[in-house]
Design goal:
The strands form three sheets. A four-stranded mixed sheet has the order 1-2-7-8, with no helix packed on it. A four-stranded antiparallel sheet has the order 5-4-9-10, with no helix packed on it. A two-stranded antiparallel sheet has the order 3-6. Strand 9 and strand 10 form a beta hairpin. The chain starts with a helix and ends in a 7-residue tail after the last strand. With 158 residues, the protein is an alpha+beta fold. The protein contains three helices and ten strands; from the N terminus they run H-H-E-H-E-E-E-E-E-E-E-E-E.
Length: 158
């Protein structure tokens, strides 16, 4: 099962509405600041947290569990030392990787050979919990850039 684009759109609409309501309550000086996008320039675009088929911990099954990270800008973004983490503390750190403009990289759980479009965590166990978890993308300075949650009472972005 994957996080759908309709949930993403509904979340974005809600974020924009909240931003508009919040802007009304700000002092005049703060309200004159430029508006920020409802989502980050680099964001989690899709999560396949439940590997299709039997969960047999084979490398094939592990690699069918993944997170897509997308760069929506016109410039490459250096993701060196950025992290992708779950609620249990499993952390993948991007090493010497630049995400091309308007490109997506898929971060697989299992073992594989890294390419421009596919990276591998080299795990021998599943990372993303099927019944509920949060994928959090942080910059090299530790700032949360994006997060996606799923499961009971968790189908939202942070």
């Amino acid at each position: 099962m994957s996080v759908s684009s309709s949930v993403r759109r509904m979340t974005a609409v809600g974020a924009i509405a909240a931003a508009v309501v919040g802007a009304v309550a700000l002092p005049a000086a703060a309200a004159q600041q430029p508006a920020h996008l409802a989502r980050a320039s680099v964001y989690i675009s899709k999560v396949q947290y439940d590997s299709p088929g039997r969960d047999d911990r084979s490398n094939r099954s592990l690699n069918a569990e993944w997170v897509d990270v997308t760069n929506s800008t016109r410039k490459a973004v250096n993701l060196d030392r950025w992290t992708l983490r779950d609620d249990s503390g499993h952390t993948y750190t991007f090493r010497h990787f630049s995400l091309a403009p308007r490109a997506t990289v898929r971060v697989h759980t299992g073992i594989g050979r890294n390419t421009r479009s596919d990276l591998y965590q080299d795990q021998r166990n599943y990372v993303w919990n099927n019944n509920g978890d949060t994928a959090t993308l942080r910059t090299d300075r530790g700032r949360v850039d994006d997060a996606v949650s799923w499961g009971r009472d968790r189908g939202h972005r942070h």
